[in-house]
Amino acid sequence: MLREGASGYRTGIDDLGLSPEYRETLRQLQDRAPNVVVAEIDQDGFLLSYFGAIPGAPAVTRDRFVPRTRFDLAVVACGAHVGIRKNFRGDKVAFLNELRALHTLGLGKCLIPAIMDIDFDSLTLTYSYILGSVLREELGKRGAVVRDRDVPRNLSRAKGWHIRLEEG
Fold first, then answer.
1. Whole-angstrom Cα distance, residue 159 to residue 77?
2. Largest Cα span, the chain
3. What residues does each domain of the chain span?
4. How many H-runs (helices) and E-runs (strands) does the chain carry?
5. N or C: which end of the chain has fewer CB within 10 A?
6. What is the pTM of this model?
7. How many angstroms separate the Cα of 158 from the Cα of each of 40, 42, 144, 154, 155?
């Protein structure tokens, strides 16, 4: 699957547009660890970057970060490329369903992100990071009210959710 998935689109670390200082820091960290977390992705798709602004990517500050309710997502540097690591938090069924879907779509010659890594022990998949606009952001800019499908039922207990929902 990795061999078949490796043929897709890949973003290089230099393509992220990080400042030279942050790129150098990232390279130094990669000398000690194969995969370095560049940013966390919150429930609404905003990035909390540990290496400065990533041009074109929607950003969030630590105090506005809304943790993901289902699976953790992080932007990771893997060698010379950038990926999105999805941690299935032990959900084997969801992990295998996603692997099956990716494999089937790849066989059908669909344009899907390259599969960069599969970890069966920790149930994580790493896909290639694709630069560009985020659909949710583009819809919001045009006035659409976009809410997450995993909004908690009792919003009063969820810190910050009422503000984020009002913002759309």
1. 31
2. 47
3. 2-133
4. 5, 7
5. N
6. 0.78
7. 19, 14, 23, 7, 5
Strand partners, 59: 47
40 by DSSP, 3-state: which? strand
Q: Please, which residues bridge with residue 85 across strands? A: 74, 126
Query: Count of residues for the chain?
Result: 168
Write the pLDDT tens digit of every residue in 44-101: 888 999 999 998 888 999 999 999 999 999 999 998 899 999 999 999 999 999 999 9
Name residues whose C-beta falls within 8 Å of residue 165's C-beta, 6 or more positions apart in sequence: 147, 151, 155
pLDDT tens per residue across span 17-46? 999 999 999 999 999 988 999 999 998 888
Question: Alpha-carbon distance 135 to 65, whole Å?
Answer: 19
Q: How far is CA 128 from CA 51, 64, 117, 140, in A?
A: 18, 26, 9, 25
Q: Within 10 A of 22 (CB to CB), how many other CB atoms are there?
A: 18
- If we measure between CA atoms, which residue out of 60, 16, 64 comes closest to residue 38? 16
Three-class SS state of 141: helix
